[in-house]
Amino acid sequence: MKRLFAFLTVLMLVSFSAIEAPAADGSGLKITEMAVTTKIARNNPIDAVRRISYRSVPALYCFTRIVNPSGEETPFKHVWYRNGQVSGEQLLQVKGEKWRTWSKKPIDKDSVGKWRVEAQDSEGRLLKAVEFSIH
């Protein structure tokens, strides 16, 4: 009975320590909002694009709202994909505990296709992605 009690005590300690472990991505970044938008106004997206004509606007923006528990300056990037191929990437910085930032992608008639923007940490691990199409 004493062995069973000791085993259960150790098991509970291991379980509780696993709950408090740092995020698997190592950066601790958490994206609370991510959207492709036609415009940023007052540091916020005005809409969320799912499908758009290349004739509508000259560029699109990928807006990202991030929580960074450490508060330390931390890099991450937006990687823009068109039809599964990398079309561009932009290195961005998180400079506080709560941060908003965005990248910009010019569009034209050659931009038609299925798009995805990924937010990746400094190690290239996916934090979040959004998809949309340009016709």
Quick recap of the structure?
The protein has 1 helix and 10 strands, in the order H-E-E-E-E-E-E-E-E-E-E. By secondary structure, the protein is mainly beta.
Count of domain modules: 1
Distance between the termini: 70 Å
Order of neighbouring strands in the sheet with most strands = 4-10-9-6-7
Average pLDDT taken over every residue? 85
Sheet of most strands: 5 strands, mixed
| Record field, number of beta strands | 10
Keywords:
single chain, 135 residues, mainly beta, Immunoglobulin-like, 5-stranded mixed sheet, 3-stranded antiparallel sheet, 10 strands
What does this structure look like?
There is one protein chain. This protein is mainly beta. The chain has one domain (25-134): Immunoglobulins (Immunoglobulin-like, Sandwich), CATH 2.60.40. 13% of the residues lie in helices and 51% in strands. The protein is built from 1 helix and 10 strands. It has one helix at 2-19, and strands at 30-37, 40-41, 44-45, 51-52, 59-67, 74-82, 85-94, 98-106, 113-121, 126-134. The strands form 3 sheets. It has a 5-stranded mixed β-sheet, with no helix packed on it. Strands 1-5-8 form a 3-stranded antiparallel β-sheet, with no helix packed on it. A hairpin with a 4-residue loop joins strand 9 and strand 10 (126-134). The protein is globular. It starts with a helix and ends with a strand. The model is unreliable at 4-25 (pLDDT under 50).
